[in-house]
Each structure stands twice: as structure tokens, then as C-alpha cells.
Amino acid sequence: MAIIYMARHGRAAGSYSDDLDPGLDELGHTQATRAGEQLGGNQPLSILSSPLRRARETAAPLALSLDAEVSIEDRVSEIPSPGLSLQERGPWLQTVMQGKWQDQTEELQQWQQNMVNCLLALKQDTVIFTHFVAINAMVAAATNSSEVLIFRPDNGSITQFDTRGGKLQLLDLGDEAVTSVN
Fold first, then answer.
1. How far is CA 165 from CA 40, 46, 169, in A?
2. 3-state SS class at 160
3. How many angstroms separate the CA atoms of 44 and 79, rounded?
4. How many beta carbons lie within 10 A of that of residue 104, not counting itself?
């Protein structure tokens, strides 16, 4: 059994519709430090991050405090939107989030399943620095919900799962806020 802590990245310096890979803004760095402090007492931890800059920058304070490496894991990255321009991404994402998983493309359903497989393969307690929709995808999988949008994880919030019995189980939703997806 592994306890999985999925931490949403701190507030980004750019939005989903205007920057493919923004870093954190000043508040985002503060949120990253706070998340690192909150997670620091949960050793031993393995640290994974989405390859995107905002997630890696959020992982940095925890990695520094634990003197640990951050492993990049593509399966916990942002929801894929291949072929869409920055201007098309925002409206597309709003439509996706209003839908159900069974109505999404095969590619998006596979993205969700690949992430489930990633979490279930973890053998030790792990923190994963990731994204709004990714966290929702795992909450949906753990609760057998068909909804894409289940809750609004705040920047820097931490949602907990366990993998007892080879099944993803939700332990605790992270802090929720009215927030933009970035």
C-alpha cells in the first residue's frame, strides 16, 4: 500500500490559454513553499512531477527540504490538447470539464487510465506535483464518478489517495477554491 499525495501546482504566471508552459508567479512560489512545508513531515516520500515548469517549480521546495530528487513523470502531466492553438485551448477545456469521462475522446480516456496505472504502480508513499484536471481525473477514478469536474483544487492544495488492495481510494480532498485553471 502507498499513500499518494497529489499536490496541485502553485499559481502560474500565465493561463492555460496564453502560455504553454508558464512558471510560477510570486504567489505561486509562496504556495509551493507552503505545500512543501505541509508535506515535509510525511517521510519517506518519493517525489514525482509533471514535466511542466509550474509543477516542477512547485516541487522544488519539498525536494530541497528533503534533499531529494524529483522524478519527472509524463503520465501525471496536464490534460493533452494536441493540435489546438492557445486561443482554442480555453474554450475546449471548458467543454471537456462540463462533460463526462465516457463522452471524452479515446485519447483522454487513455490519459486518465495511464495516470491510474501510474499511481497503482507506486510502492512507497509518493507526492505528485500535477494539475487541476489531473487531480480531478484521479478523484473520478477513485470514486467511480463519470464527471470530469468533481471539485476545484486550490493552487498548492493536496489531495490524498491510497492504493490498498490494488485499487485507487480517495482519502481526502485538498483545499478547494474558486480558481482559474492554469
1. 26, 20, 9
2. strand
3. 29
4. 17
CA distances from 163 to 5, 37, 118, 169 (A): 11, 24, 11, 6
Give residue limits of the domains in the chain. Answer: 3-172
pTM above 0.90, yes or no: yes
Closest CA to 119 of 38, 35, 3: 3
Reported residue count of the chain is 182
- In this predicted structure, what is the pLDDT of residue 106? 96
What residues form DSSP beta bridges with 130? 8
pLDDT digits (tens, 9 = 90+) for 85-129: 888 988 999 999 999 999 999 999 999 999 999 999 999 999 999
- The per-residue pLDDT for 1 is 80
Superfamily of domain 3-172: Phosphoglycerate mutase-like (3.40.50.1240)
